[in-house]
Structures
1.
Amino acid sequence: MTRRHVLRVDASARKTGSVSRELSGVLAQRLAGEAGTVTVRDLAAAPVPQVDEVWVGANFTPAEQRSEAQRQALAGSDALVAELQAADDIVIGVPIYNFAIPSALKAWIDQIARARVTFRYTENGPEGLLKGKTAWLVVASGGTALDSEIDFATPYLRHVLGFVGITDVRVIDAARWGSRSKAEQDAVREQVETARRAA
């Protein structure tokens, strides 16, 4: 049996009572199975830094020409990219804040979207390099319906993940959670409990 490795990314500022954390935690364990492993990247507990001028300069410098200071500036990003590269499945808990993703999740994306590392430019346009992976978005919100005209989170994440090569993106719809009946909530939990990655 193939041992699956799952990267779980949490972005909710809430440690307790978070729907995205609850569901993504269960989903990650189900996908890993008894033989697999889960790496947790909690962006609220340990925020990744915003990119700055030093980071940008280091990223634009060819790897073999970087100074020690530039290598240090990219060390955190390198670690985040390595987590993605090692994962078979990526489970992202996505609370919708003010119609979009939390700033902590955007900072993570800025750190892992790296030209020549997770994508490259070719004569036919950009090509994502993180291929053969599946991403699962556990999207939770108070009042924003999934893929509605005011949902700027889900379409963005589908696009940016596809840009780095992760085109198999699956969505667990936990939007407008507080407005759902218990039966509807239980149906979402059942979807999470029975989730399986395609062979």
2.
Amino acid sequence: MSPTTSARGRRRVVALAYDGARLLDLTGPLETLATANDFGARYDVTIVSPDGAPVVTATGAGLVADCAVADLGGGLKRDHDVLIVPGGPNWPRVIHDRALIGAVRELSARSACVASICAGAFLLGAAGLLDGRRATTHWRFTTELAELFPRVTVDADALFVRDGDVVTSAGVSAGIDLTLALVEDHFGAEVARSTAKDMVVFMQRPGGQSQFSVRAQSTHARHESLRRILDTVVENPAAPHSLTSMARSAGVSVRHLNRLFREELDLTPARYVEQVRIEAAKSRLEVCDEPISTIARHAGFGSPESLRRAFSREFGVTPAAYRERFNTTNVHVS
């Protein structure tokens, strides 16, 4: 997808609907395009389903398609500017739906750009559209995407990833981020900026997906001594977990402990301790109003500045900014 900010022609968008699709995966991007039309964009949107029948989305709400894939007008290769493919909670099932995956292949062959929302990346993967490309999906499913489609390079932290004429996005709200990027490409930054402002969303959100995810603590280590050390660090992240003290507790040499961490976790002991401490701080930021200095002490950081540096490096935001964004909506309903 190459930038065409000077182009002002009408753009045709096709959105694929199917039973079990997440409603917001469709309505988020489509509302963004409709809002962009109020500020000078020119999008024509067609909602299609594999057979033209209405679909029942994951919420139970029905959605009426404009037509079937086979009845879609055009006929020339790449007669659509954008194809939008939503995801849904039943992606493990729908990726085996031959008719649906066939529809993805047919529509993608006629589209200048293919954009998936959230778990829609699995449909693109099943259609072979992600082979040899970088891609992303919701942080909960990045491991599964990489395992199911080993020819795909999965970026687990990106809000959306562009690779050639394929764009994949993370969770449902990241579909709005992706769509704003398309609007900017098609009609310029001012139209995209006005659209974002009207929708009260970021033009470009700070940080990546990792700020929303919970770090998976490696509870399946095979070596009993290593499991004991991992549990000890999680139970008391503020303790002085030096390499020497951890090796002594595990009853192994420092060299052997380093090897265990590398082989089973692909981490150094120091990096594991830091991740646990960051996770501990993040959890407290989400649920309490303690001073940052108190949280830093309880999480095992020597100072608020040490916490700030580690937190910013991990999540791209400061602890204070994270608390403001995720601790409360600051809305009080009486």
3.
Amino acid sequence: MARATTLWALLYTGFGLACALSGISLFPYGGDSGAPWPGWAAVAVGALGASAGGAVLRYGLRPALRVLLRVVCGLAAISAFSLLMDVITLMLGQGVDSWAATANKALAAAGAVLLAATARSDREPAGTAVREPSAAPRLVQRAVWAGTLAFVPYAAMKLLWASGGTFAGVTGEEMLAASERNGASGVFLALESWGLDPTALLAALGVFLLWGLARPWGQVFPRWTLFLRGRRVPPWLPLAPALLGAATLAPYGVVGVGYLALATAGVVTMRRGDLPSSGDALLVGWIGMVAFGVHGIALIIAARSYRLRTRPAGRPARRSARGTGADAE
């Protein structure tokens, strides 16, 4: 893992350096469009990752290096923010704002996984027994219920527009025209015309994932999976989208709620966008941001519980912090 992390870090450093020197923006939004600092930030994160990975290869995974790996992992995770939004737009056939920015998020997300794995590479399971499928604790399931119910108003609003109804002063026809004007794909527009909002469908998938992390059926393929039924679900299969969703939705929703609170208090001005008034924009914004924030936090809680419940039975043993470099690879 340390070798793979070092190779990633060198690649990421080169990518950031090329973008910074060529003037390619990795943050094409607002007043920072074209600014070179995101490229240099990528260089700094990559250099730190390469230094940490190289030191682990040489000296083994010492406590200070573990801390450094986790810090760089956090920085990489921040750099991968909103990757899920780009993935969703690509799935719906729409273009992203910047291919360079999307590539930066994808590389940063891969690096966060590698850095986290390297930071834990000296931990081996003491037992190999497989735990029986189990439900999450009651408090975790309450968080899952909260994450589920938070999406109900959002899905209802979207489906109301998709079915031709009116909400926040906008009819379904006006919302469809706005989506077409804003460059929505043919797939998106077709689903909307059939009364199926794609974002509501994605919200339903998010709820399905959330309950899969909390219930026993999320650890064993159910009957309807045909040839896979009864087999164990590889833990990374639900955890990968859960962590990607949590890393995007939780900060997006929390920051959005903070901004909406300021706008509601009159500290900042809320842009109305395609809505008739700022008040309508606030209403729609609150519904969306609360859904994203609560669901993202619930994903974090459920993913942690799922990881603990699917670990091999037996407490993990840690190697000596003074192990050789080969031990950490």
